[in-house]
Specification:
three-stranded antiparallel sheet, 3 helices, 7 strands, globular, disordered C terminus
Length: 133
């Protein structure tokens, strides 16, 4: 079983059924802008929590295609000024749904391949169900 947590820069590989950590695979991003974490219990309207939720880069989808292939779709993250500019043009703007801020990484047999693909508009909900886009 492979797992990618939202802000973790590695994929965790677990042995089943024992659920023991077998190894980890480092993720090399071309761009991954992160914001500082917020303390547990911080209110949802805290500006730092809002920025972390809507602007910070994160792993979005991890899809095991079989035969040793795994795809990772991630959100690159954007700055506050980029968000404000885009939100003024397209209100409301959702950065995490913007295909121009998505990237796709390919892994084969536990190693990242040296290619990064751009995001695909509207494709990820289909791909996560294994339907070809």
């Amino acid at each position: 079983m492979v797992v990618a947590q939202e802000l973790d820069p590695e994929i965790l590989v677990y042995q089943l059924p024992e659920f023991t950590l077998k190894n980890s695979i480092p993720i090399n991003y071309s761009e991954f802008l992160t914001y500082n974490p917020v303390p547990i219990g911080a209110p949802f309207d805290d500006p730092q929590a809002i920025n972390l939720a809507r602007l910070s880069g994160r792993n979005r989808k991890l899809i095991n295609l079989g035969n040793g292939f795994v795809l990772l779709q991630y959100f690159t993250g954007i700055t506050e000024s980029e968000f404000e500019n885009r939100n003024s043009e397209e209100n409301p703007y959702s950065a995490v749904q913007d295909a121009s801020e998505q990237r796709i990484l390919i892994f084969k047999d536990g190693k990242q391949l040296p290619v990064e693909l751009p995001g695909i508009e509207g494709c990820w909900s289909l791909l996560s169900r294994r339907i070809n886009c």
